[in-house]
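REVIEWER CHECKLIST
Item 1: Sequence provided? yes
Item 2: Single chain? yes
Item 3: Sequence as submitted:
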Amino acid sequence: MPHTHASSDGVIELKESLRWRDVAAVAEGKRVILSAAALARVTAGDDRRRTIVASGDRVYGVTTGVGALSEVVVSREAQSALSHNILRSHAVGVGALLPPVETRAIMVAAVNNFAHGRSGVRPAVVAQILDLLNAGCTPSVPRDGSVGYLTHMAHIALTLVGEGAAMSPVDDRETDGAAALARIGREPLRLEAKEGLSLVNGTPCATGMGALLLARLERWLDWADAIAALTFECLEGQDVIFRPESTTLRARPGMALVAARMAKLLEGSVRIEAARGKRTQDALSLRTIPHLHGAVRDVWTNAADCVDRELASVTDNPALLDSADGPFAMSEAHAVSPDIGLAFDQLGVAIAELGMISERRLDRMLNPMLSGLPAFLAGASGAESGFMIAQYTASALVSANRRDGLPASLDGGVTSALQEDMLCHATAAVTKAQAILDRTALILTIELLAAAQACDLVGCVEKLAPRTRQVFGFVRSDVARYADDRPLAGDIARMKARLAETPVERVVPV
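Item 4: Structure as written out by the authors:
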């Protein structure tokens, strides 16, 4: 049975569960609806919750407080107040707001979790989130202050009950939660037992933002190959390393994929053909392009599988289950995700390595003793510095990535008076990997601009492979050759933005 279905008008229908690509698509603006089966599961979960509440059994976060207050009994009359108070007390995020696209990713991941039917929230709660999503009304969520999954969702949930703040889809201005709901024809919800806990629980923060990061990185991985190909050509690399006779010696799918892509990108290069046999072997920053770029792709695949598994899982505590004696609540730790933390810690390191090899290729182009190209890719007047200091910037970004490469998973931490004495920091692992990607994207952009500059300086554009010539043309359609005639920072920022929004296949099919 398919997990999702995208109808002809582009609306994503949630059936069994979403996949990471669906989450990213909704974050970027697609609409999402529940199938009849998913709605039935939510309704069944609501029925389980009502039965459990009526039984009077002691249930964490329903008839008791939360965290270290889990032994404090909450009366039936106070259970709704507990739900609302959980949102207010947990909405302690600080710092700059998340971009709307990231908040949307979290929201749709939360809907996916509720659609498993094990949280017990009412269909009205899910409908409120869906209406906000589909109307483009995004709650204001501070980026910092969460050790896992609580504060981001608390700020989102405040909007559902008419509190907090949200960005209006009409004029892109912040308004209070009640006004935001009114603009889309909704009224504030009055939460029932357990709903407040369910709204702040689970792993939608790490899962949603992780899905968005996967989509962004996928595009940059394709660009990394294209950029490396142009640099490889400028430096007259030995293309024997891309032949299947070599790559099949290693059982690494990513390496084989990158080698095939590089061979395709360089197919028909007069410059590469003329350089064959010029050197016994290239430096490792050229020779390991298939190995390192391929390894990053393999790690990306592992992270993508991890996010899909998370989306297919129930990540609520407690979960509402069935037995021969009727519904019951089971307290567990499914709202914690060491899987995501470990996967995205590894992905962050992999992205950092991608930036590192890019900076090394950049340095080789700028060093005339290694490249045979004009020093620092500067003009001959002596008054120009070319890309000399741009390499400093790339080196600084590599160093920052190295510092952020330390695993968030090992941070530990103790909260809630030793009740929560083990933290996995999945959300931090994702946001850290995103910061590493932002820097690596800049490094790759600088490498691309330098490679285009090298092509101009040595006059080899007509000798490039047809595909790398299109990559060169993509650069020159927006950024002219550099002659110390303007701040280079502007070129870097403009080209990075273009690369981020342009799929490689739109420029050159590979």
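Item 5: Key structural point noted by reviewer: The first helix runs from residue 20 to 27.
Item 6: Recommendation: ____
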